[in-house]
Amino acid sequence: MKKLEQLYEGKAKKVFATDDPNVVIVDYKDDATAFNGEKKGTIVGKGVINNKMTNHLMGKLEAAGIPTHYIQQLSDRETAVKKVSIVPLEVIVRNISAGSFAKRYGVEEGIPFAEPTFELSYKNDGLGDPLLNDSHALALGLATKEEIALIRDYALRINALLKGFMKEIGIDLVDFKLEFGKTADGTIVLADEISPDTCRLWDEKTHEKLDKDRFRRDLGGAEEAYEEVMRRLMGEQ
Ligand code: UDP
Predict the structure, then answer these.
(1) With a threshold of 0.90, does the pTM exceed it?
(2) How many whole angstroms from 144 Cα to the centroid of ligand 1?
(3) Which pLDDT does position 236 carry in this prediction?
(4) Candidates 92, 210, 219: which one to mutate for ligand 1, based on the most atoms within 8 Å of Cβ?
(5) Which of 1, 94, 143, 176 is the most exposed place for a label (fewest CB within 10 A)?
(6) What does the alpha-carbon distance between residue 162 and residue 167 come to, in Å, rounded to a whole number?
(7) Are 192 and 92 in contact (CB under 8 A)?
(8) Residues paired with 120 in a beta bridge
(9) Measured between alpha carbons, how far is 85 from 87 in angstroms, rounded to an integer?
(10) Is there a contact between 120 and 140 (Cβ–Cβ < 8 Å)?
(11) Residues of the chain scoring pLDDT < 50
């Protein structure tokens, strides 16, 4: 497979065309941003970790029956994935209160929920990714009713699976963001990444944050936290 011209550069990844029109290559960067791009920095080694961790987790999700965009890892930072058009929804599932949920509803962080929550935001940086409900997404033509139902079903199944994978390595899955894409034939698949950039991961005993909040909140030790999750998940750094 030949890597051709760059199609897109996002905040954490670049996307390249290939000689196969149905395949693109994602290339993970060490750049870190927060607060809708207002805070910028670098987490050294993050690109390699997020690439490997995403592929590892997507492989396990595929094995459990969740369709994903994953095809094949090509190098430390590069992976071949199915070319999709991203559904412009940020899909967030939460098990424990934190972040914008705690702020919006005036509750403390760390309260476990009886049932996971499912929420959607409009993926639109110019508007600051505003929260929306199903009817808003339909009104804006962002997805069909059937697609939203499928995305919700996948997101909750993914939550149950990821929660289990994390529990095995002594980590509580607090919340996470997913993105879905549509392949050329209209199939909805899990896309983007699953990493400490997109998940809140707390050590189950110490409640130490092992995710991007270390960068967002200037806690220090972001590199070590990403490496720790990687080591526990895959037994390597
Ligand atoms: N998240 C993300 N990208 C975003 C917004 C949120 O990956 O643009 C993830 C975030 O890492 C956390 C979850 O989604 O695991 C819920 O984030 P929240 O809504 O609490 O927003 P935040 O506090 O990060 O602004």
Answers:
(1) yes
(2) 24
(3) 60
(4) 92
(5) 1
(6) 8
(7) no
(8) 91, 132
(9) 6
(10) no
(11) 237
Residue 146 CA: distances (Å) to CA of 69, 97, 134, 150, 183: 20, 29, 11, 6, 16
Q: Looking at residue 228, what is its pLDDT?
A: 98
Q: Ligand 1 pocket, 226 CB below 6 A? A: no
Pick the closest to residue 207 from 109, 105, 117, 114 (CA basis). 109
On whether the CB atoms of residues 166 and 160 are closer than 8 A, the answer is no
The DSSP H or E segment spanning 35 is none
Please list the alpha-helical segments (H only) found in the chain.
Answer: 46-63, 99-105, 134-139, 145-167, 213-216, 222-234
In this prediction, residue 237 carries a pLDDT of 47
The confidence score (pLDDT) of residue 235 equals 87
Helix (H, G, I), strand (E, B) or coil at 127: helix
User: What does the longest C-alpha to C-alpha distance in the chain come to?
Assistant: 51
CA distance 74 to 51: 10
State both tokens at 46. Answer: 């993050």
Reported as a single tens digit per residue, the pLDDT across 21-62 is: 999 999 999 999 999 999 999 999 999 999 999 999 999 999
**How far, in whole angstroms, is CA 156 from its chain's centroid?**
14
Residue with tokens 């950039």: 197
Tokens of 163: 């929660």
CA of 102 to the centre of ligand 1 (A): 12
Tokens of 122: 């409009």
Is the C-beta atom of 193 inside 6 A of ligand 1? Answer: no
230 is written with which tokens? 């990687």
Residue having the nearest C-alpha atom to atom 19 of ligand 1: 100
